[in-house]
Amino acid sequence: KQHANYNGVFAAVRILQDSTIELLTDAFGISPLYYRMYSDVLLFSTNSRFLNIENDKTDRIAAKILIQCGSVYGNRTLTENIFRLHAGQIKRFSNNGENEERWFDFSRLATGSKNVNKRTLTDIEDAFQESMQRCLKLPTKQYMLPLSSGYDSRRILASLHSHKVPFRSTTV
Description:
By secondary structure, the chain is α+β, with helices and mostly antiparallel strands. The protein has helices spanning 60-69, 118-136, 151-162, and strands spanning 11-15, 21-25, 34-38, 41-45, 83-84, 89-94, 97-102, 144-146, 168-170.
């Protein structure tokens, strides 16, 4: 399936050739994506406050959950008509209506049969540093880091600094 290759922390919007709009979130919902319909217009943002409209009503159930638990769960927000996309989900809006699917299946995760300990973390760090060293050996005159402020790009940024490698960065 084409979705099997999605990786990382992301919230994305794709506009397809048939005018279908797809909203996508990462497997664990770390990067949020909020949406609402306003008349016949789809509005979306990575921060729900940017979707608030005058005279919006508070979602009282979400407010109660926030007070009792410290955060709002599921696809609720504090505003009735603003929703958060679930983790690992694709929501499509087209001329034929709305539909959604989960692109990530939690049953595909490793069973976790080994304990994580200091040695495991050291092995992971060693593998990361080894891959950074291989990348730094590539024949190039300049290094460019697309900095998203996500976990991956921040980790690579730290590695480049620790190796004192000059680079440029860009953020979109």
